[in-house]
Structure formats: structure tokens, C-alpha cells
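Minutes, project check-in
Item: structure for the 743-residue chain
Input as provided by the requester:
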Amino acid sequence: MKAAGRRSGTRLRDHLAASDPGLLRLTAGLRTVGAIALTLAVLAPAGADITHLVAGAMASMAATFSIRERRRGAQAVTLALGLPVALVSVSLGALLSERVVVGDVFSVALVFCAVYGRRFGDRGTTLGLIGFQMYFVSLFVGATPDRLPAWWAVVAVGFACSALVRFAVVPVTPAGLLVRLREAFRVRLARLVSAQIALLDAGPDEADKALEELRERTARLHETALMIQSRLEEGTPDEPTARLVQRRVADAEIAAERLGLLLLSARSAERADTLTLHLPGAPAPEVGRLPGPEEATALLRRDLRALRALVLRTGTAGAGVAQVRNRLLGYRDEENLPAASAPVRDVFRGIGEAARAVMGLRIALDGPQDESDDSPATARSREELDAEDAAIDAEEAEESEEPKGLRRPTTRAAVQVSVGSTLAIVGGELLSTDRWYWAVLTCWIVFINTASTGEILVKGYRRLLGTVFGVVAGILLAGLVGGNTVAAFVLVLLLIFAMFYTAPLSYTLMSFFVTAMLGLLYTLLHTYSWEVLVLRVEETALGAVCGVVAAALVLPVRTDRRTNELLVTVLERLSDVTDAAVTQLSGGPADELLDKARELDQALGDLRSATKPLTHPVTPLRTRRATARYVVALLETCAYHARSLAATAELLPTHPSIAADPRLRGAAGRTVRNIGTIAARVADGEVTAPVETGASIASLLAGDDASRYGRITGRVLRHLERLDEAVVGLARPLDVPVRAPER
């Protein structure tokens, strides 16, 4: 029974780690609910009435979710600065509530300052959020000047309870968060291997489903890798340690993705295109049983399961685990490869590379391992890892120049939201002189974390959709709780937890829980009615429309312009990574390849987010939707091959089977030039220079004198060729002419 309980507990932890990397969503929900519950527990015995309880709960919620800094010291400073901002905001809300014109002007000014404050980093963003939210709270609860000391006390209690929960009850240290993210990476890596096993066993009718699962789990592993990289600076003791973990995470991700590609190619009747793994909805290539004897397929299934067990294994290895690890690592040195076709043998080699990456990741994260049972192949892998670790050296990153004036995104957004808020105030007061602020709140919210008219339109649509369904839920819940205050507050806490837990997953769901919660709060404040909830929908729709109108007419940033700018950035980062990796593989000086690869991933992530309005299911432009998905998938394919080249180039000084070849520089020059040509075309549609095609890179490197340069691994050639093909493939959807070589 105890063993079964431990297994169930382990499965539950693994499920949570995989679905919520770092437990960030769970932590946000628990912190917010804990802060509100503690605030209510302090205020209720003190005799606070319902209005003050609601105000205290909303103050603690604002103080909890607004904090964005990662270091605890910075969080404490921002929270301390946020309290006077909140007190001033509540006071002004109470004083101006009866002065319509002055209050409206101040609301617009406050919105402008709250959005403009984002230019000052996380602290400016947080103080802006607190100022605006607390002004909204004062209007919501009907704060009046004659009771300001009581409101100040309530807000102070809310902030104090938020601080207590943040730093004592649900503490999160950067190092602890990084540990949980590492655990999430481990679990997601194991799930990716499980998807590869499913692909191995999938029949012809199941291939598409298995491939889609493989795509999804590959994307989730990449997401976790990026989250780890973004937390390394705060979560590791020094720069060399951060760079070591960064390298090992990148190695494991690349090895796992490459293993999936090798398996897909082995199961395909023809060579599987790398794009197949990155284009959502693309059909699986024609698959059959693996070529070669059935024994090879059985061994492959066994070794994939063994690899998954190595990934999930924690604690000391033991003789049995060491024996499995030695067998898998032996495939890297051509040991015990089964009699099978070349593609199948490549999969076994890929398992060996993945096992090496898993061992390197474990050493980087957990320290030295027991080496008593190492085979010669394992010992060689350890020596390679030690040599790579010793070669790590940190350098300063260059700072880029920021745009100024109205070109600065924060300034432009502040002007836009001010205009939109003015429209929302006018329209909102025509709908209701008491609830007009709902329209302003919606207009303000749709501008948060958006950068183009299309993004604002999609966000406004999602908020309205969630609000409509939330109104229905609010009506049902209000009828359910009736006048039971305790039950209402319990449901409010549950809805708040659900709101924060689902916020990163679905803005529509978050809006649904917010609106349902507000229905209960209106019940507590004895202001609930069908008319109030309908008015909530009307004000939300008005605010969303005002936000879209302001974004479209005032200093507009069209979705096409935004995506083109980000596309140029991705292409520039891709060119940087490719050029630097090829230079190093050609014998040139070393560069900070992992940093360049991370910048490429971040730029690609920004582009992926910016294209969501174009790829949204409700978009009427089906052709543009398909084109956007295809371009992003091609860029993800390019990024995968560029990351792989960078990882291989990083091994050059320490890996005995990789030698520099000066001919690579010339052979890959066409690819780098083509990337620059496409970027120039996207940036300026008048550019007419064509993309060049020609002989394969492998043929360019062929020659009688090949041996004098040492052995170039087939992997490098494959990545260069696939990258060249993918870059040429970008030309057609981006309307760049292609020129074939003259014969």
C-alpha cells in the first residue's frame, strides 16, 4: 500500500511539473488566495463590514499579483513603495468620486501614467498597476472622504497580509524556482520520449495522431527550456554555473528533438522533411514498419524505454542503471549496433547522443556521479563533458539602442490607451453614471502585453466572450449562495484561484472567472441584479471597442507591420547564429553561440505571439492564416538546425570526432546571404534581389582533397543542407524571387 501511495504521489508530482513548469501558476493562485484569506481573517474579527472586507480582499489581491520582480529583495522594495501609491490612489478616488469632470480627467491621466510606467521596467509596471487597480477599487466599493482613515487601514492590512504570504507562507526563491523548472524539464523530456515510443508503435491509421503528440511535446520541452534560460541569472550562484546549465539544457533539448526526427525518418518511406515536425496539422509521411529485422525494432523499443527510465531516474544510479546507461552510450562509439538498415542504426546512434545529453544534464544539475561502473564509452563521454565544461567562459552582452519619443512602445501605448479611455469614459457614462469605470478598465486591460491592433482586437474579443459566459455563471452562483456570506467568500476564493491558475493558458477563461467572481462580490455588497450584470457586458464591449478604435486610429501599429519587424529580427538573429557557428566550424574564432541561439529563440517566440491574430480560428483571411503558420513553422525548422549547428560548433575544441574545415565558410555563405536577402525584402518591399539556389552543400564540399581537412561529421552537413533548403523555402510565401544557377 505504501509503495502504491508513493507511486501515485510521484505520478501526481510529475503531472503537475509537466502541466505547470516551475509550479508558477499554482504558486500564483495559492499566494493570491492565501493573501486574501489572511486579510479576511484579520479584518473580520476586528468588526469590519462587508464593504471593507471586499476592499481589503481586493487590495491584497492587487498587491500580490502586481509584483513582477524575481529577486526577493526587489519584491520587498516594490511592495513597500506600492503601499503609499495605493493609499494616495484610494484617497484620490474617494475625493474625486463626486467631482465628475475632474475625476474623469484624473482617470485618463492615471491610465496614461500606469501604461507609460512600463518603460521603467518591472517596478514601474507594478506601481502603475497598483495605482490604477486601487483607484478602481475605491470606485467599486464606493469609498468616501469621511471614512478615509478606515480605508487606509484596510489597504494597509491587505498589503501586510500579501507580504506575509509572499515571504513567509508561500515563499519562492530564485534557486528553488529553478529547481522546480529543472524537474519540469526532466518530466517533459521523459514525456517526449514516450511520444517517440508511441510513434514507433503507431500503425498507419495512428501516425497522424502520434506525430501531433510528438509536435506538442517537443514544443512544450522547448517552452520549458526557454523558461529555465530566463531564470538562470537569478537562480544560479555565478555566471559560469548559469552557462553550464544553459549548455546542458540546450544539448538535451536538441538531442531529444533530433531523436524524434531520426525516428520519423526511419519510419517513413522517404526522407522525412524537418518541417513536418514544426508545421501544425501537417500530415505524417507515409509510414510502414521499420526496415530491417523485427529484432531491431524490439531492441529499439527497449532502448527508448531505457532512455526514458534514465531521464526519470533520481538519486544514486546503482549497478543496473549504470549497465543500461553504458549500453546506450556505447551506440555513440558504434558498439553493439544491431544488424539493421542505415536509418534504423541512426536512431540507435541518436539514442546514444540523447543518453550522453541526459548524463551531462544530470552532472551539471546534481554534481559528480558515481563512476565505478563506467564502461570505456561512458568514461569517454565523461571526459568530453569535463573538457566542454572547462572551456566555458562568460562575456558581456551588447546593449541595443532603444527607440525614443512616440516611437517608444510604452509612450505610444500610453497615448493610445489615454485616447481609448477618454472615449470609454464618455460612452461609459452614457450607459451608467455609476459603473462607467468598467469600460475604462477593459480599455486599459486590452493594451497590457499587446503591441499591435490585431493583438488588441483578439484580446478584446476574448475578454468579451469570457465576460458573457461569466455573467451567466455569476447569475447561477448568486442564486446558489443567496445571502450566505461565508459561502460567497469561499466561492470567491475558489474563483480567484481558478482565475490565476488559468490566466497564462486562456485569457477567455480568466475573464470568465473574473466576471463570475464579480457577480458574487455584487451579491456581498447587496448591489447584485440582472441589470448590473448585463451592464457589465455592455461596458466591457464598449471598452474593447474603444481600445480597438484608439489602437487603429492613434499612432497605429498594424499587425502586418509588427510581424514584419519581428520577422526581420528573427532573420537577423538566424543569420547571426548561422554565421557564427559556420565561422567556428571553419576554424575561425569562438563566439558566444549559446547566447545568440537564445536570442534567436526569444525573437521567434515574440514573432509567434504576434502572429496569433493572423492564425486565430475566427480570422476570415484563411490564406494569410495558412501562410503565417507555414512561415513560422519554417522559421522554427531553421532555428532548430541553427541551434544544432551552434551546439556542434561549441563541441569543436573538445570533441575528437569534429574537426574544423575552412571550406564550410564558402559552402554555407550562400545560406547566410539568402537570409540577408529575405530580411531586406521583408524590411523594404522595393528590394528585388533574388534568393540563390544551387548545388547541395555536400557536393560543394566534395573533392579529392577532402581528407586534408579532417573529418566533417555527417550531422553538420545534414543541418547545413536542411537549413539551406528551409531558407530557400521561405522565399515563396514571402514573395522573394528565386534564381537558379546558370548552366
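Outcome recorded: The longest helix spans residues 622-651.
No further action items on this chain.
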